[in-house]
Amino acid sequence: MAMVRIFGKENCPYTTAAREAHEAKGDEVAYYDVKRDAARLAEMLVLSGGRREVPVLDEGGTITIGFGGT
Asked: Does pTM surpass 0.70?
């Protein structure tokens, strides 16, 4: 089982899809809503190189921006 940190927004369909897909695989998911948590937004911006696109996934240090073909 992998640990995945997902930085996203509550009403973003790509964030929801990422969370559901990783939970279905049995991954441990930590979700952070960057609209409600300024500290997590700042962390996401460091991981994404300043890009404000969501979701940003951190899978053991491998960073992916976007989900579902983006």
From this structure: yes
